[in-house]
Design a protein that fits this description.
The complex is a heterodimer of chains A (283) and B (165). Chain A contains 5 helices and 12 strands. In chain A, the strands form 2 sheets. A 6-stranded antiparallel barrel of chain A has the order 1-2-5-4-3-12. A 6-stranded antiparallel barrel of chain A has the order 6-7-8-11-10-9. Chains A and B meet through helix 1, helix 2 and helix 3 of A and helix 1, helix 2, helix 3, helix 4 and helix 5 of B.
């Protein structure tokens, strides 16, 4: 079939195009309460087999990686067995690497991230765990390094996590010693892949040194207390005389996350500092 | 065009969709990995009228918006525009040449990302600049390379005449 002048486009083509543009603009304009059910319906019908395919693919990829890791561990164990005095320290190191899952109190579910390719994908990520796995809206999504985001929409077997990079994300936060409180919000980038956060609303007389770890405060009852959010790297120049805003380097980048832990139990009033402190001590 | 050509053409598009949801996540950073779904749309537009291409773009975009709810509607608008302009541009301006098609895939990817970030309004400042001047061109290049390979490997199935120029 040759490409020729018969494909220049008729009036009908133009009308179809304009109709699609109008529908797209309408889709952008509908309120959030309409968008979520539409997106949910599409994910549960047309996209369901494709998401299943993606989930299976992710599982296969993970399985291969785990197999390689187990092979490496087996080889390491065989080597370590020849050096008995080092066996105990090797054992301790492997125990440390068991991960955050073992340190968290009961009530969580592990989920794979199903990556998408639009530029806005890191702002809201689709995961492979949904209502059937016990995920509920407003649950905290974590990685071993810290806070990733909060669950927005929940389908039967998938859920959408609004990450901290989303412009509307906010979290009540505090410094690791509990002396300074504020609100964490996304800030922007400082390079191609370096997204930053900011700690707002810190009283002007309170100073937060660079390198200070910032955690969720537990205020508001959404996030449990003690989840790492980021580390202070500077202060924003401002003319306001009653508060300061600090720049944070995030504990975890949403685009780099392949697996998540979503809290499903009654963690809201709890304190997870010990779980993450143990993670930091692991060799 | 023979009837079997039509099925082969559809098969290539189905393979690209399957690759998008199975292999793509293993091809490195998701901001750089080739966009097989957009590639399927662009290849579809090579043989379709602008109206059909715009409608196909709208459907693909809306489905993607369901998977990236942060920019709901923006993907539909972007894919509609890219689908229509690609089909129209192919008919009016572009020769059937492998390199020209490569540039079409690159431009389509970049314009799609441009429209998504501008229409969604979610990326601003340096995030917008980095997305448009660094990540999107890289994704455009990888998508174009894969697209050129697909056109070259399946040119008989796609019933596309690639000039030797």
């Amino acid at each position: 079939m040759t490409i020729g002048a018969d494909r220049y486009g008729s009036r009908a083509d133009t009308l179809v195009f304009l109709a699609c543009v109008a529908l797209s603009v309408a889709a952008m304009s509908v309120p959030q309460t309409w968008r979520d059910p539409i997106a949910k319906a599409l994910r549960q019908t047309v996209l369901a087999p494709l998401l299943d395919l993606q989930e299976e693919s992710e599982l296969l990829r993970t399985s291969k990686a785990r197999f390689a890791a187990i092979e490496a561990q087996r080889d390491s164990a065989a080597l370590a067995a020849t050096f008995l005095p080092e066996l105990r320290s090797e054992n301790a190191r492997l125990r440390g690497l068991l991960g955050l899952e073992n340190r968290l109190p009961p009530g969580y579910v592990a989920a794979e991230v199903l990556p998408q390719s639009l530029p806005t994908s890191p702002l809201a990520i689709v995961t492979s765990a949904g209502a059937k796995e016990g995920v509920k809206p407003l649950a905290a999504a974590l990685s071993p390094e810290g806070l990733v985001g909060i669950v927005g929409t929940v389908d039967a077997h998938t859920s959408v996590v609004v990450t901290w990079a989303h412009p509307e994300f906010r979290a009540s936060a505090m410094t690791s010693d509990g002396s300074v409180y504020g609100i964490v919000a996304p800030h922007g980038t400082a390079g191609g892949g370096v997204w930053l956060l900011e700690l707002r609303g810190v009283p002007y007389r309170q100073n937060v040194p660079e390198g200070t770890l910032v955690l969720t405060s537990g205020l508001g009852g959404v996030f449990p207390r003690g989840i790492p959010i980021g580390t202070v790297v500077g202060v924003v120049a401002t003319n306001e005389e009653w508060e300061k805003t600090y720049i944070l380097r995030p504990a975890v980048h949403p685009a780099a996350v392949s697996h998540l832990i979503i809290l499903t139990g009654p963690h809201a009033g709890g304190d997870l500092r010990s779980a993450f402190e143990a993670a930091g001590e692991a060799p | 065009m023979r009837r079997t050509d039509k099925y082969r053409f559809a098969l290539v598009l189905v393979i690209l969709v399957a690759l998008h949801f199975s292999v793509r996540s293993r091809l490195g950073d998701e901001r750089v990995a080739p966009d097989f779904l957009l590639l399927a749309l662009l290849i579809y537009t090579i043989r379709s009228k602008p109206g059909q291409s715009a409608a196909a773009g709208f459907v693909v975009g809306l489905l993607r918006d369901a998977l990236a709810p942060a920019s709901f509607g923006a993907g539909a608008l972007a894919h509609t525009l890219v689908g229509y302009l690609s089909a129209w541009g192919k008919a009016v301006f572009f020769a059937e040449n492998l390199m020209v098609n490569g540039f079409l895939f690159f431009g389509g990817t970049w314009i799609r990302n441009l429209v998504v970030v501008l229409a969604s309004g979610k990326l601003r400042g340096s995030m917008l600049v980095w997305e448009l001047l660094f990540w999107s061109p890289l994704q455009g290049i990888t998508t174009a390379l894969v697209g050129m390979f697909v056109l070259w490997a399946f040119k008989g199935w796609l019933a596309i005449r690639l000039a030797d120029r």
